[in-house]
Amino acid sequence: MTKPSEQEKSPAKQESLPFWRMFLSVFQASFGVQNKKNKQRDFEKGSVKGFVAAALIFTVLFVMTLVIIVSLVLP
After folding, report:
1. Cα–Cα distance, 22 to 20 (Å, whole number)
2. What does the pLDDT look like over 4-60, one tens digit per residue?
3. Domain that holds residue 61
4. Is residue 6 in some structural domain?
5. What is residue 46's three-state secondary structure?
6. Is 65 inside a domain boundary?
7. Domain count across the chain
8. How buried is residue 27: exposed, middle or buried, by Cβ count under 10 Å (0-12/13-18/19+)?
9. pTM of the predicted model, to two decimals?
10. Mean pLDDT value of segment 58-67
């Protein structure tokens, strides 16, 4: 009989995604350039809380960028 690997024994010990990688995935997905491989990785290793936090931060930064651009363009 074969011995199960470490990942099969404890799924809770699987490597999770770093926050910057989640933020990058949110950024790519918001512009529609997320590929299938990254999407699969996100669903397997990412946490919901991390993606929600990354999405909120991205949204705030995006809106602030738009406000700054509009205020610079309009007198």
Report:
1. 5
2. 555 454 454 567 888 888 998 899 888 888 888 888 888 888 888 989 999 999 999
3. 18-73
4. no
5. coil
6. yes
7. 1
8. middle
9. 0.70
10. 96
